[in-house]
Structure formats: structure tokens, C-alpha cells
């Protein structure tokens, strides 16, 4: 036997041995890779970081037991609140990082772009956790996109149910001139008009995002003498607008409703100076409902990050459990089986009770709270009181309504 | 919809008060542009630093005193930052082309933006004007928020101060002369470098003052620099580059068209100030008042 043939046999043997060693490794557990695209710079970073903290907190517990023998790991990308950047990053996560699914982002436009350009095109599951445009799981929904955020339809309906109980007739609508602002305005007005047909819209004004000085808008709204104003702002615009209506004395004369006005992240920067009597809706409050689960969640979050969780942290926490639960149910790391498993999945809510990923439209069902701001001695910021809880079924458009919009 | 006179009156005064803040910020921008020939994109960042500094100062000195202390100290903090920037960076670059200066100040604005994020974090901040400023006052039947009324007083004071400085002080006259012909000023034996440093710091002080004055009416956040700088350059351009009174005229046009736009056609209010800019530039491409460029 020549030397070269001998070494050939040895080589062959080695290869076989190595492949045999590799085989069990392949079928053995691996980590689940989650790609996160969200805004971590600029004003919306507050929400991006809050969501990330909620996600990390949930993963700490989830990874103690592991999922399918492995862990859930994640990698983040900063999309800087830009649609094109977000799309490029989502593609990169799928192509180069081989992530098993994508989650994010706060930007509705970015979410829609990823939904269409990556999730649908590459057949990769995508869970939207902060962006609220109802089109994401409504008109433009499909098999690969999910939402663990409350959407504008839910928010609008919740606002309408709350407002319909009030005596106001003449409404003025004002807000930031971008997709979210208009989506909220459309939704709340659609449902309010349906529940209480005698309401009247006496005017609308829209300012550009980041408009620093709202006083000219407020004085002109005052001049129109509405019974109530529906403000459609988001993010920093919220804090800005609430501050302006407080400083000018507007809030003392005219009642107003904002979606997320009672959110902790909005009211906290204003401290005890925030105005009382502002109506708002939200799907999560760190102090309500006072369940043991919510208290434990807030305590753990506070300990880890030095402040109570906001709604993005809540959404992201739910998202983590949805992901873990779906993989456990599917029994394997497979994109299609993951989707089959997450449809209709119920996970415990950190606020108590359970939340469900609706199978028909991939929209998570949350109860919503409608409340009014008030100063209470035990808090150093203004909180929501007189809270009404609207169940998921009350605020969600029905499956038929949603699926009808998709057929158009 | 009918408008009563009082609504028009309030809107006029509110627009005027917005114009005052814009004037304070853009007068500084225009001054730097006129004397140093630097289109300072980082001016907006200095405005933002003024607002954030005001926030920190009100945290250290609580209550109404904090607000007044912040109004004085925050612009000085900005002046100190700009002094360092001038001595370390700008003073070597005055002879460069405008395009290069534009790129340089743009880069500086990004760096300052990140420094603000490192120092103050990404969260929104907010300060409140003293309780005295809450609510509205009635002037000739028009109701004006008190803080806006205060701005209406501050704006002209600043304008008079600037006029006094540039027309009645030696340093101001030298700065004005340097704006027209810097070589001549150097030739008569004046240390132009320090005149420039002073002019730069004064311009930036105005940005800081604008930021501190604006802080109680808005949320203090990253990104407020970009919002102001675009409007700032538009105002300076329609007023006449480098002309401080041009900044006043431009600010008045911008503030008032916005306020009345909101009153008369709220759905399209955003468009009004920009339409005014377009009209001015078509009729007077070099600005309303004499440009020093």
C-alpha cells in the first residue's frame, strides 16, 4: 500500500468520524436568534430603550429554563427612525445574521416596509411591538406579520367609548401631521361618530412633527370654542403638547383627550407640573390594575433599570413570552411551524390575566384603560384616575371587519 | 367660520412672541454669518445645549429662582462651549471655502448632538416657567399666555442691546467693520483674531439665550437643533445674509405668517411661512434688507 493511499484512507476515516460527530450536534439544541430593529437614537430612543429593557427582563427568566434546550438570543440594530435604514437593517439581519425572526420597531412606516419587503418577501416572521398603525395587521397584514402593540383602531375605539360617555358635542381635532396622527384621528372619529351620531367636528389643525411652539395653534383652537379637543400626537410631541396646554391655561378651559396621555413616559418628564383633567387611553399602567403579577413585574423592572416600565416594555415583555411560547408549542425552530404555533397562542400578561395572539389577523388582544390625569400624594408625577377598563373584545375590530379591509 | 377681533389680536401677539425667539436665535446666526462668514449649522446645537443647560440649572436651583438663574447662566455655558470650539477649531478655518465650512459645522453639529446625548441622555426633559407665568393676560381684549407676553418684552430688549453694542461700542464697531472688510481692519493694527472670537461667542450666546427662553414652552429633546436651524437659515436668507435687522424682519414674517396661517387655514398652516419665504425670494433674491455678502 503506497503511502499516499494510506493517508487517503486516514483522511476519509477522519471525515466520516467528524461527520458522525457533527450529526447529533446538528439535531441538538441551538439558540433562537431574534433580530431587533428599533430606534435607539434621537427622541424616540426613549421608547426603543424601554422596549429593549422589557424584552431583556423577560429573557432573563425565559433563558433560565431555556427554550427547546437552547436560549433566546438577540441582536439589535438602530434604524434611527428612518424607513430606508430600517429596511436595509432588517434585510441584513435576515441575510447575514440568519435570524429566526425580526421584531421592532416604533416607526409605523418602517414596520410596514419591513413587513412587505422582508417578512413577506423572505417568509420571515416579523413581530411589531411599538408601532401602532392599524394597517400593519389590518389592510396590509399577511401570514408573516404580527403585532404585539395596541393599534390605532383599538386606541381610537377605546377613546371613542370613553368620550361617548361624556357630554361633549363640538369636537376639534388637532395633531402632528404624519401617519400615526392621522390614523388615530380617523379611528377615534369613525368610532365616536358611530356610537354618538350627534357629535360635530368644528375644525382640524395639523402641525409638523417636532414643531416646538404650539401656542399659535392653541390660541386659534380656543377661538373656535370646542367642547373638547382630540389631540393626535405621539412621542415627544405628546409631552410638548401637554406642556403647552398646561402652561397657557388651555387645559383649564377646554377638556382634551390624547391616546397615551396617561402613559408614564409622557407624564414623567413633566413631574408634578403636568396638568390635571386630561383624558387618555393606554394598554398598560405600572400602578393599575393592582394585581400581584403587575406589582412583581414593576418591582423587577424597577430593580433592573431604575424606573417603572412604560407600555413599550410591557409590549416587549409580552413579545418575548409569545416567542418562547410559540417555539415550545412548535417543538422545533422552523419559521412556518412557529407561525402555526403563535396563531391563537395565549400567554400570561405581566399585568395579570392572559393576552392572546388573535389567529385571524395576528393582532394581540389587550384590554385598554381610559382615565383622567390627577395628582396623588403618593406619586411625584401625575397619574391616571377614574380608570375604566375596556376589554380586548370591546376595543378590537372584529375579525370580519379586519379581513374585509384586506380584500380591497 | 367667523373670527372675532380678539382671536385675531391674540394670534397676532402670539405670532409676535414666536418671532421674538426666532429673532434672538437668528440674530446670533446672522451675526456670525456677517462678521465671520461662517454658515454655522452647529448654531442649532448650541440652542439645544442652552435648553439642556437650563434644565440642569433648574434641577440644581429649585423654584422660580432657578428659572431666572438658568436664563442667565445657560447662555453663558453655551458661550463657554463656543469659546472652546472657536479657539480650538474655528479660528483655523476662517479662510476656507464656504462649502467646507458648511460641512465642518454640520459635522460639529452631529458631534455636539452626540455629546448632548452622552451628557443628558436620550430622555425628554422639561422645565417649567415660574408659576407667575401660568395662564393668560388680556391686552386690548386679546388674551395672551403670560409667558408669551414676557417674550414680547425680552425680544425688543435684546434688539436694543444688540443695536447699542454694534453702534455705540468700539468692539461692536470693529466687528461691523470686520464684516465689511476684514483685511482693512487687520491693516489698521487691530487683532482680528480676538475680535472674531468675541463675535463668535456673542452669536452663540444668543443661541443659548434662545434655547433657555424656549425651554419652558416645549419639551427639551434631541432633535430640537435640526428644527430650529432650518427655520433659522430661511429667516436669515429672506432677511438678508449677515444683516441683523434682516433677521428681525425675517423672524416677524415667519412668526406672523405661521400664526395667521393657523388661524385662517389650520389644515395647511405648515405651508404658510414657507410660502412667504418663496415669495420673498422670488421678489428679492438677495433678501429684504441689504446682505453683507
User: Structural class, from helix and strand content of chain B?
Assistant: mainly alpha
Widest sheet of chain A: strand order? 7-6-8-9-10-14-15
Number of spatially distinct domains of chain A: 2
Cα shape of chain B: globular
Return the string of H and E elements of chain A. HEHEHEHEEHEHEHEHHEHEHHHEEEEEHH
Question: How would you state the average pLDDT of chain B, rounded?
Answer: 89
Q: What do we call the CATH homologous superfamily of the largest domain in chain A?
A: Response regulator
Cross-sheet strand order for the largest sheet of chain B: 1-2
Class based on secondary structure composition and strand pairing of chain A: alpha/beta
Helix and strand sequence of chain B = HHHHEEHHHHHHH
With helices defined by DSSP (H or I, 4 residues minimum), what is the helix count of chain A? 15
List the helices and strands and how they pair.
The complex is a heterodimer of chains A (408) and B (293).
Chain A lengths: L2 H25 L4 E7 L6 H21 L6 E7 L4 H13 L5 E4 L3 H15 L3 E3 L16 E3 L4 H13 L5 E7 L2 H17 L4 E8 L7 H10 L3 E5 L3 H12 L2 H4 L2 E4 L4 H4 L11 E4 L9 H14 L5 H20 L4 H8 L3 E3 L5 E4 L6 E2 L2 E7 L8 E8 L1 H4 L3 H9 L1
Parallel strand pairs in A: 1-2, 1-3, 3-4, 4-5, 6-7, 6-8, 8-9, 9-10
Antiparallel strand pairs in A: 10-14, 11-12, 12-13, 14-15
Chain B lengths: L4 H32 L6 H18 L2 H26 L9 H23 L15 E4 L2 E4 H23 L1 H11 L1 H6 L4 H23 L9 H16 L4 H21 L6 H13 L10
Antiparallel strand pairs in B: 1-2
Amino acid at each position: 500500500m503506497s503511502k499516499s493511499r494510506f493517508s487517503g484512507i486516514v483522511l476519509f476515516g477522519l471525515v466520516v468520524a467528524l461527520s458522525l460527530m457533527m450529526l447529533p450536534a446538528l439535531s441538538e439544541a441551538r439558540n433562537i436568534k431574534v433580530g431587533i430593529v428599533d430606534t435607539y437614537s434621537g427622541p424616540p430612543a426613549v421608547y426603543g430603550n424601554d422596549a429593549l429593557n422589557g424584552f431583556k427582563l423577560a429573557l432573563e427568566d425565559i433563558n433560565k429554563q431555556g427554550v427547546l434546550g437552547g436560549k433566546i438570543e438577540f441582536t439589535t440594530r438602530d434604524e434611527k427612525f428612518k424607513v430606508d435604514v430600517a429596511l436595509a437593517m432588517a434585510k441584513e439581519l435576515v441575510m447575514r445574521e440568519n435570524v429566526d425572526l425580526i421584531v421592532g420597531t416604533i416607526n409605523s412606516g418602517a414596520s410596514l416596509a419591513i413587513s412587505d419587503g422582508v417578512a413577506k418577501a423572505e417568509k420571515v416572521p416579523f413581530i411589531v411591538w411599538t408601532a401602532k398603525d392599524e394597517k400593519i395587521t389590518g389592510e396590509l397584514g399577511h401570514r408573516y406579520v404580527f403585532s404585539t402593540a395596541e393599534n390605532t383602531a383599538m386606541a381610537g375605539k377605546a377613546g371613542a367609548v370613553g368620550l361617548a360617555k361624556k357630554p361633549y358635542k363640538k369636537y376639534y381635532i388637532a395633531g402632528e401631521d404624519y401617519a400615526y396622527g392621522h390614523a388615530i384621528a380617523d379611528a377615534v372619529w369613525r368610532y365616536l361618530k358611530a356610537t354618538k351620531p350627534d357629535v360635530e367636528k368644528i375644525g382640524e389643525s395639523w402641525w409638523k412633527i417636532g414643531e416646538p411652539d404650539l401656542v399659535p395653534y392653541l390660541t386659534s383652537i380656543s377661538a373656535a370654542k370646542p367642547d373638547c379637543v382630540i389631540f393626535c400626537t405621539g412621542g415627544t410631541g405628546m409631552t410638548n403638547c401637554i406642556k403647552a396646554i398646561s402652561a397657557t391655561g388651555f387645559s383649564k378651559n377646554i377638556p382634551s383627550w390624547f391616546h397615551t396621555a396617561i402613559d408614564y413616559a409622557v407624564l414623567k418628564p413633566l413631574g408634578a407640573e403636568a396638568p390635571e383633567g386630561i383624558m387618555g387611553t393606554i394598554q398598560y399602567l405600572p400602578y393599575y390594575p393592582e394585581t400581584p403579577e403587575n406589582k412583581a413585574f414593576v418591582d423587577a423592572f424597577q430593580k433592573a433599570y431604575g424606573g417603572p416600565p412604560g407600555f413599550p416594555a410591557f409590549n416587549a415583555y409580552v413579545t418575548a413570552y409569545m416567542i418562547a411560547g410559540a417555539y415550545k408549542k412548535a417543538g422545533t425552530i422552523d419559521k412556518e411551524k412557529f407561525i402555526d404555533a403563535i396563531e391563537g397562542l395565549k400567554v400570561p400578561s405581566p399585568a395579570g390575566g392572559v393576552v392572546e395572539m388573535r389567529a385571524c389577523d395576528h393582532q394581540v388582544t389587550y384590554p385598554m384603560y381610559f382615565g383622567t390625569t390627577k395628582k396623588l400624594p403618593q406619586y411625584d408625577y401625575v397619574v391616571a384616575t377614574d380608570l375604566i377598563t375596556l376589554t380586548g373584545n370591546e376595543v378590537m375590530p372584529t375579525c370580519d371587519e379586519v379581513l374585509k379591509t384586506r380584500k380591497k | 367660520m367667523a373670527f372675532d377681533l380678539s382671536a385675531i389680536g391674540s394670534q397676532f401677539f402670539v405670532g409676535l412672541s414666536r418671532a421674538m425667539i426666532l429673532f434672538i436665535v437668528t440674530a446670533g446666526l446672522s451675526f456670525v454669518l456677517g462678521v465671520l462668514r461662517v454658515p454655522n449649522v452647529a448654531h442649532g446645537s448650541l440652542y439645544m445645549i442652552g435648553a439642556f443647560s437650563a434644565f440642569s440649572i433648574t434641577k440644581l436651583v429649585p423654584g422660580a429662582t432657578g428659572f431666572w438663574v438658568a436664563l442667565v447662566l445657560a447662555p453663558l455655558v453655551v458661550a463657554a462651549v463656543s469659546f472652546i470650539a472657536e479657539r480650538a477649531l474655528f479660528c483655523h478655518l476662517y479662510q476656507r471655502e464656504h462649502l467646507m465650512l458648511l460641512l465642518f459645522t454640520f459635522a460639529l453639529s452631529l458631534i455636539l448632538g452626540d455629546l448632548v446625548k452622552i451628557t443628558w441622555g436620550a430622555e425628554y426633559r422639561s422645565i417649567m416657567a415660574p408659576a407667575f407665568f401660568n395662564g393668560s393676560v388680556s391686552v386690548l381684549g386679546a388674551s395672551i399666555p403670560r409667558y408669551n407676553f414676557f417674550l414680547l418684552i425680552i425680544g425688543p430688549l435684546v434688539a436694543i442691546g444688540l443695536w447699542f453694542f454694534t453702534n455705540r461700542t468700539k468692539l461692536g464697531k470693529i466687528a461691523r467693520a470686520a464684516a465689511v472688510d476684514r483685511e482693512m481692519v487687520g491693516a489698521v493694527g487691530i487683532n482680528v483674531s480676538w475680535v472674531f472670537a468675541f463675535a463668535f461667542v456673542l452669536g452663540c450666546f444668543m443661541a443659548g439665550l434662545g434655547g433657555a427662553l424656549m425651554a419652558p414652552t416645549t419639551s427639551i429633546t434631541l432633535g430640537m437643533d435640526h428644527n430650529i436651524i432650518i427655520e433659522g437659515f430661511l429667516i436669515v436668507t429672506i432677511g438678508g445674509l449677515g444683516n441683523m435687522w434682516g433677521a428681525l424682519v425675517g423672524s416677524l414674517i415667519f412668526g406672523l405668517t405661521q400664526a395667521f396661517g393657523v388661524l385662517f387655514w389650520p389644515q395647511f398652516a405648515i405651508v404658510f411661512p414657507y410660502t412667504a419665504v418663496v415669495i420673498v425670494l422670488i421678489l428679492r433674491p438677495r433678501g429684504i434688507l441689504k446682505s453683507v455678502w
